[in-house]
Structure formats: C-alpha cells, structure tokens
Design brief:
The protein is α/β, with parallel strands linked by helices and about 350 residues long. The protein has eleven helices and 16 strands. The protein has three domains: about 110 residues, no CATH class; about 150 residues, 3-Layer(aba) Sandwich (Rossmann fold); about 80 residues, Ubiquitin-like (UB roll), CATH 3.10.20.30. Keywords: GTP-binding, Nucleotide-binding.
Length: about 350
C-alpha cells in the first residue's frame, strides 16, 4: 500500500515539476496540489483510522509556560546547544519526564519557565509532540544550511506544521445543498470558481460557501479544507559561526528568522534567548496582595492570545473567577493607575493586578 501511494506521490510531484506556473495553468496546479495533500495525509495517517495520540516513547508531559522543540541533523551541534542552554539557564539540572525523549530541562528566562524538547527526527509520535510546541528551533550547520533546512521544512510541512505563517484568511463552510458559492472580497491571482470547485471535488465536497478575504493560493484553500494545520513560529539557529568569517557573519545577520551562534563556545546565547522571548510573545503579570507591595519575583505568565483578567484568574485557579468582583490594574493596559476593570479587560506585559473578591 505504501509503495503504491509513494509511486502515485512521485507521479504527482513530477507532473507539478513539469507544469509551467502561470495563470493558464493555475487550475491544473491547484488540482495537483490537492491530490498531493491527500496522498501525504494517507502516508502519515496510521493504518486503521485517525491520528490517535503520540507514538510510544514520545509522550512528554507538558510543563512550564511555553514549550520549544529543537529539530536538526545529528552533526549540527543540537545536543551541545541544548545541554549548554539547560546547564546555564536551568533552575534544575535533572528534569523528570515521562518517557525516553531527550529533555535537557526547563529553563527560566525573564520569569517564565520554558520547556526544551529534543525532537529526534519528526518520526511517528515525535510529530505529535512537535505540533504542541509554541516555538520550533531548527538548528543548522552554518557551513551547509540550505540542504538541511529544506529537508526539515518539507518534513514539518508534511505533518501539517506551518512555520512563520498565519492561518489563511478564508471562510469555509460545508452545507447540504446549493453547490459551491465563491465570494472574493478582493482580486484573486490564483483562485477562481473553477479551480475552487476542482480542489473541493478532490475532497468530495460539492456544496460549500467559500469566502476569500485576501489574495489566496491553492495551498491556502487546501490547508483550510484539511483543517488540521498548526501555525508555529520558527527560528533558524545557524551554529558553528566560529568557522566562518566576519563578512559571512554580517550576511547571516540579515537573514529573516535567523540567529547565528556557536553552541560549543556559547557565543551569542543572549541574542538567541532574546529572539526566543520575542517569538513566544509571553505576557508577564505581577500580583499585588491587598495592602502589600507587588510581587515582582514570580509573575503569572500568559500566552499572548489569552491575556484577559479572566485568563489570568483561570491560570491561578478556576474558582478565582467564581468569586471575582473586579480587579485593580496598574500598567500600560490602563489609563489610570490603578484602574478598576472587569474580567474582560486585556492585560499587557508587566501589568500589576489585584483581584477583589465578592
């Protein structure tokens, strides 16, 4: 079965490579891309049904405020980087984990606890853990980065992981009848009604409302239809900079999403950690008990997408929101210090909060 799928997959890829990309061939390429996505899914879906849980040996308990997955070939210095980061910044040298995956530790940075995971090849099981990461670091040898980079990116993409991108701005709703209704709120360079209908037909979808709110591609539509994509920020860590010239280093610094380091010499770890912090977008909230000074030693750390007062209360304990009356907030999220706010108020980094109960 796998051999048959691989043959068809190779045939589709060959057709795509031979097809010149222009407006006239957009419909045909869109159809091929839909078939390619279906074949990839067939290859990675376990025999007998759905995706299920992580494979044996990679069921790592999530801990801390964020999770970072490290991916890279064995020769690039990934293990050295992980060990040195954990050794320098970890509050505990030995970390208990559930299975035999390399977990160097939980580092503390700017008050946040960040879990580091070594993903030894995105194999069955490890891919499920990778999808739960808040950030992925692809570690590359600075002397041969491009080949390794492409292989890893393709592997992650094959498992539905999209790096440094946002979900497509496409509305999609299946219905029982009425055919395919396409609405485009702006000009489209690749998708038209015929192409959309052909892509959806590959998924046996013949009745749906599709709204294109920005210039979209066939890949965008396929991602929305598949519905199992995750969008994760990624940093490319170019290791072994002690083996290149200053001029080459200056060029690397201009590449988007890249941080040059030397894991062996522990060079540029500060820049790497600062970039990690920027990409995680964590929000630190300091607590202030009534009649006392704020506690700046142990912030409550929230993900950037869940920063309301209610999210803050739920992070501490779910019963806190039941007794919630209002909150007093000091910081950049309010106009007055303090300001009385409700549970829907959105907090910002380094705000101070005092909860008043009923």
């Amino acid at each position: 079965m796998v051999i048959t799928v691989n043959k068809v997959l190779g045939s589709v890829l060959l057709q795509m490579a031979r097809t010149q990309k222009n407006k006239a061939t957009a419909h045909h390429l869109g159809l091929l891309k839909a078939r390619l996505a279906k074949l990839r899914r067939e290859l990675i879906t376990p025999k007998g049904g759905g995706g299920g849980g992580p494979g044996e040996g990679f069921d790592v308990a999530k801990t801390g405020d964020a999770r970072i997955g490290f991916v890279g070939f064995p020769s690039v210095g990934k293990s050295t980087l992980l060990s040195n980061l954990a050794g320098v910044y970890s509050e505990v040298a030995a970390y208990e984990f559930t299975t035999l995956t390399t977990v160097p530790g939980v580092i503390r940075y700017k008050g946040a606890k960040i879990q580091l995971l070594d993903l030894p090849g995105i194999i069955e099981g490890a891919k499920d853990v990778a999808r739960t990461c808040n950030l992925i670091l692809i570690v590359l040898d600075v002397l041969k980065p491009l080949g390794h980079k492409k292989i890893i990116e393709n592997e992650l993409e094959g498992f539905g992981i999209r790096l440094n991108s946002k979900p497509p701005n496409i509305g999609f709703k299946k219905k029982d009848k009425g055919g395919i209704n396409l609405t485009a709120t702006c000009p489209q360079s690749e998708l038209d009604t015929e192409t959309v209908k052909s892509i959806l037909a590959e998924y046996k979808i013949h009745n749906a409302d599709v709204t294109l709110r920005s210039d979209a591609t066939a890949d965008d539509l396929i991602d929305v239809v598949e519905g199992n994509r995750v969008y994760i920020p990624c940093i490319y860590v170019l290791n072994k900079i002690d083996q290149i010239s200053i001029e080459e280093l200056d060029i690397i610094y201009k590449v988007p999403h890249c941080v040059p380091i030397s894991a062996h010499h522990r060079w540029n770890f500060d820049d790497l950690l600062e970039k990690i912090w920027d990409y995680l977008k964590l929000v630190r909230i300091y607590t202030k008990p009534k009649g006392q000074l704020p506690d700046y030693t142990s912030p409550v750390v929230l993900p950037y997408c869940k920063t309301t007062v209610e999210d803050f209360c739920m992070k501490i304990h779910k019963n806190l929101i039941k007794d919630f009356k209002y909150a007093l907030v000091w910081g950049s999220s309010v106009k007055h210090n303090p300001q009385k706010v409700g549970k829907d108020h959105t907090l910002e980094d380094e705000d101070v909060i005092q909860i008043v109960k009923k």
